[in-house]
Amino acid sequence: MVVAAAILPELATQLVVPVAAAVGIAFAVLQWVLVSKVKVAPEPRGEGGSAAGGGAGAGAKDGASEYLIEEEEGLNDHNVVLKCAEIQTAISEGATSFLFTEYKYAGGFMTVFAVLIFVFLGSIEGFSTKSQPCHYSVGKTCKPALANAAFSTIAFVLGAVTSLVSGFLGMKIATYANARTTLEARKGVGKAFIVAFRSGAVMGFLLAASGLFVLYVAINLFGLYYGDDWEGLFEAITGYGLGGSSMALFGRVGGGIYTKAADVGADLVGKVERNIPEDDPRNPAVIADNVGDNVGDIAGMGSDLFGSYAESSCAALVVASISSFGINREFTPMMYPLLISSVGIIACLITTLFATDFFEVKEVDQIEPALKKQLIISTAVMTVGIALVSWLGLPYTFTIFNFGAQKTVHSWQLFLCVAVGLWAGLVIGFITEYYTSNAYSPVQDVADSCRTGAATNVIFGLALGYKSVIIPIFAIAFSIFLSFSLAAMYGVAVAALGMLSTIATGLAIDAYGPISDNAGGIAEMAGMSHRIRERTDALDAAGNTTAAIGKGFAIGSAALVSLALFGAFVSRAGITTVDVLTPNVFIGLLVGAMLPYWFSAMTMKSVGSAALKMVEEVRRQFNTIPGLMEGTAKPDYATCVKISTDASIKEMIPPGALVMLTPLIVGTFFGVETLSGVLAGALVSGVQIAISASNTGGAWDNAKKYIEAGASEHAKSLGPKGSDCHKAAVIGDTIGDPLKDTSGPSLNILIKLMAVESLVFAPFFATYGGILFKYL
After folding, report:
1. How do residues 342-358 score in pLDDT, each as one tens digit?
2. Residue 400: beta bridge partners?
3. Can you give the pTM of this predicted structure?
4. What is the rounded average pLDDT for all residues in the chain?
5. CA distance linking residue 213 with residue 543, whole number of Å
6. CA 535/CA 375 separation, integer angstroms
7. Signed CA dihedral, 232, 237, 239, 242: sign only
8. Per-residue pLDDT tens digits for 738-758
9. Nearest residue to 253 via CA among 702, 714, 713, 656
């Protein structure tokens, strides 16, 4: 079939992608420079206004008057500034220390798994250096299996290192910005919002741009060896997604266990038993709790979304390489997934300016709408961007590989695939917000249920989580049906990429939450006024909801990504149909559906065990350190930090091993049919549990904050802090912590990581897999 060429020439494509990545990195650096103008050091009297206000535009632009500044601590209160700097340093050092320890273990795993990839894939042709017949292009020869093994290993290491660096840089940016957000809160909520949001944008753009740039460079460098063998080239590139997600698993699980062990210990003893405020400096677990926000919610989340981006790109590239794009060596259409990501960076840059420059947050009730507008604006701008890329970057008619056949597709159909993924992400985001924000009735009902104690709170929270699954699943199902109908598995892959195309904005909003949370903790520990804490609490409450929205995006995209990877795996393994009526497939389906429960049990138990040690240590300090409750003695923060670190490092290994070893064991011993059943079962089961766990935990957290804020007559009737109703809400929040920040977010990594690992090892499984069934 003769197809027309794309309008955009190859040279232009070779320029657009790196330029977009460079623009993203430059914009991230600019935001960092603006944030750094807020000084975490005492200024000489009379100069504080210009120094502290530089990060967000000096003066009283947001309506904060000099009278208000002087009325509170004052910009020249040296003790407050020094205290903030001291706390910031303690949090940053704790987070850095933990991540270095975690990365030592992750680095050891990376080395071992890289060797496994090379040995397994190299052994397919007996480590031969001779060219082999191509798997898809009949009659042609491709590069040897040994070369694919070597380049898959290199791609794996590249993805793993990029994921680790992304997480680490995100953590450093967040710990750099937290105290600056606190100090700006003295001048008004608008100033603090801009610092927190700019800091989130640094992480978002840095991660999106670096992920795109490394993938682009890897494709071009690998291409120097592979030449016209695009089938082998893009099969090797899938190692990039595997590396990204495997490191994300350790980041999410290890960081999640760390942060929730500290959080549960701090809340149960501090709030429930001792009746002291959140982030009170007398609480021995308070530094560990704030460190946890950065290693779990920032570093773990950054690695997670980077993994999703890498895998969706790899899934699309693999399918494209065996479609007309790859067969006819059409570079621009082949790079369509990277062009989408490039335009996404520009669309997110325009969107960010709406929050930081075009419109200004002046009041507390403007914070959440400003963040929601980011989602809407980025989606609208990106829709136009996708239309442009589809028009310029694709021929009008082409063919897409569809399980052994070539399906004729038009460029407008591919536009619809990407757009449906993009808009489905927005739907999932807003449904998540409805079920987790205390502005709506579901969370208010959960808060009201606290009148009769913790038990009814737990029942209402669980019911809310289960109910919140319904519409997101319909949105995902519709996306899959439409995109597969239009463009087979390639359509599903680019729909996932569409959902992730606004990753820079999504990450900025997501990272904003933990930064604001830390800012509130620093304000409390530094002894700043109640009004400052109210402002940081308002920032944090909006951040809680946006974090839940971010998790919704991550889970939704993971479902689409893993299905696309599943399709690529089935094609590469030579499976024509996955028949659930055959026993080999059905037993895999049952086992796969069980895996998310086994994984969740491991992570929940790990948090529980670590929290138990933390509670005992916090109680011990309160009981044995004289003057601790009176505030005349300092707690031993370091011991609590060590408990969280040791527990998370020890406990992250079994869940990680479960996820990484399952595809290898099933594929080798039971074969590709059983493995296809395992992947399908884990996908169907894992998505439901992940959404309900994340939303249940988010709802319990915001129900507690609803009671604490007392912003309405209904909320006031449930409070104040320390009441039986509030204590019941704290218990619900404590139960929800590991659900929303450990098990739930980690499950989306489970479903996509098993799928991408199966795809990378598919040639080995197809050749040697099913040892047990061969002899039965």
Report:
1. 999 999 999 999 888 88
2. 407
3. 0.88
4. 87
5. 29
6. 23
7. negative
8. 898 889 888 988 998 999 999
9. 656
